[in-house]
Design goal:
Blueprint (H helix, E strand, L loop, with lengths): L20 H9 L4 H7 L7 H7 L5 H13 L3 E5 L7 E5 L1 H4 L2 H12 L12 H11 L2 H4 L4 E7 L2 E8 L2 E6 L7 E5 L1 H8 L5 H6 L3 E5 L1 H7 L14
Parallel strand pairs: 3-6
Antiparallel strand pairs: 1-2, 3-4, 4-5, 6-7
């Protein structure tokens, strides 16, 4: 399918005028919201409305500007899906997708901040990327399992094998375990230490399949220790 250009006219941006690769990276993606737009596209293309729903603090105008800037930088393209969908979607270029390890390293580093507030809103993609980021391969060991994740209207399957986790959109039927709930509820079990049965009793989480696997799965993603707070 032929990619379509984003035609929104951008005002000239100030540059760092610095040959350092890190400075040029900030020239490309350093605008407010740019990295989070990229984050939301890491698991596949999305419509403009889906991006706005995943980033509740962004305005339509700013999102349009960030998409235009990322497209101009060669990070994002816009295309139209084939019929019957015929929707316009945004997706990362192959080079844009190479930024995931950068987001992972940044996320691991920031998770050590004493000021990090894990109770703030969390998008579905944020949760799923955090699983790819925080998995401890030693805790996972030789585990080989498929875990279905129903997050509202979206469903994904996480395949744990060889100390790695691969996550893709798709139906959860046939998975060894299926967890259904909001991203925040599942994060509460994995990162917040909330008991699965307590979340179930509150109606925040539904567990289908291997319950022993569920109990083990939520322990595989330990957060790094907090950095020392300023004296």
């Amino acid at each position: 399918m032929k990619s379509e250009k984003i035609t929104k006219i951008q005002k000239p941006r100030r540059r760092y005028e610095d040959a350092c690769g890190a400075a040029h990276a900030l020239d490309l993606v350093g605008e407010r919201w740019a990295l989070l737009v990229m984050r939301e596209l890491m698991l596949g293309p999305k419509r403009f409305s889906d991006l706005r729903a995943s980033l509740p603090g962004i305005s339509a105008n700013v999102l349009t500007q960030r998409l235009a800037g990322l497209e101009a930088a060669g990070v994002v393209v816009r295309r139209r899906l084939a019929p019957p969908a015929a929707s316009r979607v945004y997706e990362l270029t192959a080079w844009g997708a190479e930024a995931e390890p950068i987001l992972q390293a940044l996320g691991r580093w920031a998770a050590r901040s004493p000021a990090h507030d894990p109770t703030l809103p969390l998008s579905n993609v944020s949760l799923l990327l955090s699983l790819r980021t925080m998995l401890d391969p030693h805790l996972a060991g030789a585990m080989d399992a498929r875990i279905g994740l129903r997050l509202g209207e979206e469903s994904y399957v996480a395949h744990l094998a060889g100390g790695r986790i691969e996550i893709a959109a798709g139906p959860v039927e046939g998975a060894d375990l299926a967890l259904a709930g909001t991203a925040a509820a599942i994060a509460a079990a994995i990162y917040g230490g909330q008991a699965l049965d307590v979340l179930e009793a509150a109606g925040a989480l539904t567990i289908e399949g291997d319950r022993a696997l569920a109990a083990r799965f939520v322990t595989l993603f330990p957060l790094p220790p907090k950095a020392d707070a300023p004296a």
